[in-house]
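During the practical work, I selected for study one protein's amino acid sequence and its backbone structure tokens, as given directly below:
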Amino acid sequence: MVRLRNKVIIEMNEKDLYDRLKQIRADLFKLNVESKKGTLRKESGKLKPHRKNIARILTRINELKKK
């Protein structure tokens, strides 16, 4: 999964944000499990972008709730 741009996140509605958040968290969980087992090789660079995407989405969700 590539880095989500803020422009794309701002255009999403709340339901889409929650769906994408659920998907990214599931991917991150799988990557973390592989990392702990020691079988993660080529995808080790995907952990940090996933965490940052989660943070961006949660920030946008909180902005929408405050409005």
About this structure: The radius of gyration is 13 Å.
